[in-house]
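[audit] Reproducing an earlier prediction to check determinism. Same input, same settings, fresh worker. If the tokens differ from the archived copy the diff job will pick it up downstream; this log only records the rerun itself.
[audit] input (117 residues):
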Amino acid sequence: MQEYIPVLIFLCVAVVVPISALVLSGLLQARGRNTDASPYECGIEPLTAARDRYSVQYYIIAVLFVVFDVETIFLFPWAVKLDRLGLYGFIEMAIFFVILLVGYAYAWRKGALDWVS
């Protein structure tokens, strides 16, 4: 049972921190409503309707960001165990990098990384 104490502490922190943040933000928020504010209360008048269509380019860049971001997560376990993996692990990660760079070059060449269409 002693091994589960860190898990119990983690669960308590995971419950207490969000609840306390919500309560604290509720206590510190500004009182009263400004009826002239835009829907997101940023103070800037919207230029277009909220349901306007976005370019497909926007979604392509978002998906590419997620793909390359998830791929880089694989670097952390590899970096931790690099000394135990030795040359074999290094070669495997080099192959992984080559595949990742080929995908990046392909996306770049197709124009998926251009921000303005």
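[audit] rerun output stored. Observation attached for the diff report: The helical segments are 5-28, 56-73, 75-80, 82-109.
[audit] end
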